Amino acid sequence: MAKVLAALRNHWKKSTFGACLLGWGGHWLYGKHCDNLLRRAACQEAQAFGNQLMPATMPLKKATVFLNPAACKGKAGNLFEKNAAPILHLSGLDVTVVKTDYEGQAKQLLEIMENTDLIIVAGGDGTVQEVITGLLRRADEAAFSKIPIGFIPLGKTCTLSHTLYPESTNQVQHITNATLAILKGETVPLDVLQIKGEKEQPVFAVSGLRWGSYRDAGVKASKYWYLGPLKTKAAHLFSIFKEWPQKHQAALMYVGPTERPPEEPEEKSSRPPLYVRLYRRLRSYWSSPKEFSQEVAPEDWEELKLSTIELSIATRNRQLDLARTKDFMDICIEAESVSKGEFVHRGSQKMRDPHMCPEGSQCIQASRCILQLPEGTEGSFGIDNEEYEAMPVEVKLLPRKLRFFCDPKIREQLLQAVLQ
Questions:
Q1: Each residue's pLDDT tens digit, 388-402
Q2: Which of 34, 300, 307, 357 has the smallest number of Cβ neighbours within 10 A?
């Protein structure tokens, strides 16, 4: 024992390095063990769904999974196979996995997709945006938009997961919880933005549209990967040397919020008895006819000239409120008078919350808007973190257009807020 201690003392540098390496290896192995326990518990819970008895005449529910293997720097395929696929196959669903090979393929596949009971998106924000765009471009979108959608967060940016699932620092737990939420069947209605250019087909988004300097600088942050945690600040710092102040000028026309109609029941009530139907028909026949106003109130458009450092048009999906009586999207016009230091500091905040509206910004609530850009305007829009060429667009809110599966705890919290 004395010889061992003497050797460790004489070679203290090697001993310290070995101890650190051993500690790191033990911590890594313990993390892998915990991940396997999470997967096993999730599979056991999924198997309970698969073991449920069902009538022999009832067909299995069909689930179509759109998987983007290129998400998360090419790791999404492996993450899906290890964490989500076993849960789906044990649940008793008839699962069909469709892997996309290139950008935009999901839109094309949705146009020819046959009937399915569930649509599951496995990827990031870009995959979600492609799937809902392909879904809502269909000729029979009125029927297909009623199909519930599940989201398995596998991408680098998964904005929607903050709305649908509780926060989790463990990636395996986050993926398994999202997959189990699909099996539990609780859904929430989400708003959708329809963004249409002058010639192009409409694009649909569940988060929103960004146009401005913060977005442009944030896109370039990955180029400075060698700076580690300082890459975001470096991207915003280098952008201020190219041009300052950075202004984006446009004309904005918008219509205010609209009244929210009552939500349609998910299941139609049974047909009333014959005597009830006869009574209602006789009562409507003998009662005096009601006068209905045929006049439709004209849309009250307002126009605004703007010069801003960044403009964002966002849904209210991040702040879901089932008791809201009006439907609208948030338009944030940020002041152009921003110092260079404040620009760098705020840029880091916007990487975490892209649609935050800082103090001093002009906030507008609208149900529809038209954004006119001057001729020769360069740059790009960020629509659900996907890049599109900047052009004049019309943005229309489609309230409660799609239903997404969510964690039952999230839905319970929303319902409690309604009762309060």
A1: 998 999 999 999 999
A2: 300
